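Fig. S4 source data, part A: sequence.
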Amino acid sequence: MTAPPTPQPPVTVRVFTQRFSSTPLGARLARHLALNQLQAWGIPYGSDVSEKAAAVVAELAANAVTHGRVPGRDFELRLSLVTGSPVTGSLCIEVTDTRAERLTPAPGDVRPAQPLDESGRGLLLVEALADRWEVLDRDPPGKTVRAEIDLARRRSLKPR
């Protein structure tokens, strides 16, 4: 006699995707709209997840504009919220640019900036704030940097 199957909690996936101009204004707008979307999904502005996500989006968008910019081409922000219960799940942040020849260091390969360097700290912040991150090749040319933030410490999501 076989045991009855263990009931699995339903999985909900919410997705937000938007293209932005590869300019500093586009990077700021990406951060702003990401925070608005998280609020709409029930992740309150100022919460731990919201603050981490804001910093990660800001850094990845700034990198896409600064290092991944191809004139006339946009960068893309994609947010995916995956929840299986009120206390589990993750927020996936993906920023895609179209520049293939400038490679982003992989997790664990990011070198600390020197004290007087004016840049070079963004991916260190991503590494510190995200629970996981990776760099993916994109076809047509380009790359996607994906970072995930676990929601395990959150209490609940507002139903939508």
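Fig. S4 source data, part B ends here. DSSP finds three helices and five strands in the chain.
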